[in-house]
């Protein structure tokens, strides 16, 4: 099956969002015990700026002021750490996905499967990479 999906939207940083500012925001979140990607930091920054014109986020804002803005504009997900070697649980799930159903269907139906286990795994990887690109993380 060939699937047509929207192209990723080009990510254009906000004019006021300098890489050093994103690094600063990420450092503060990390020090507070949160994981925060650059894309998420930029998105939260944009939402905060839309609400407050960035007045409370422009340095020399205190770490507490920045953390308050992050918590107001962000959503906290309590997740256990993924297994060693994986950046996220989704990365783990895609990498270790069960493909036995292809073989089980072949045995039960006594016909050749429409796809091989390797083709199934490659298709999932391609779809996942496409989603990451669409999210600006791939």
Helix and strand content put the structural class at mainly alpha
Percent strand? under 5%
Q: What level of helicity do the residues show?
A: 40-55%
Unreliable stretches:
none
Main attributes?
single chain; 138 residues; mainly alpha; elongated; 6 helices
Structure, described:
The protein has 138 residues and is mostly helical. It has two domains: 19-73, no CATH class; 89-134, no CATH class. The protein has helices at residues 19-31, 38-52, 63-73, 89-95, 100-109, 117-134. It is elongated and about 70 Å long. The model has no long low-confidence stretch (mean pLDDT 76).
SSE topology sketch:
Blueprint: H1 19-31, H2 38-52, H3 63-73, H4 89-95, H5 100-109, H6 117-134
Helix pairs in contact: 1-2, 2-3
Brief digest:
With 138 residues, the protein is mostly helical. The chain has two domains: 19-73, no CATH class; 89-134, no CATH class.
């Amino acid at each position: 099956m060939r699937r047509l999906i929207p192209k990723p939207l080009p990510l254009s940083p906000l004019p006021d969002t300098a890489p050093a500012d994103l690094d600063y925001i990420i450092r503060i979140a990390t020090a507070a015990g949160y994981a925060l990607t650059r894309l998420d930091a930029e998105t939260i920054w944009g939402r905060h700026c839309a609400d407050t014109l960035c007045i409370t986020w422009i340095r020399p804002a205190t770490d507490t002021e920045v953390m308050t803005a992050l918590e107001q504009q962000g959503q906290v997900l309590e997740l256990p750490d993924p297994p060693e070697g994986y950046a996220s649980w989704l990365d783990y799930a895609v990498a270790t996905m069960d493909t036995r159903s292809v073989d089980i269907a072949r045995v039960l139906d006594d016909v050749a499967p429409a796809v091989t286990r390797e083709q199934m795994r490659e298709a999932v990887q391609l779809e996942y990479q496409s989603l990451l690109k669409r999210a600006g993380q791939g």
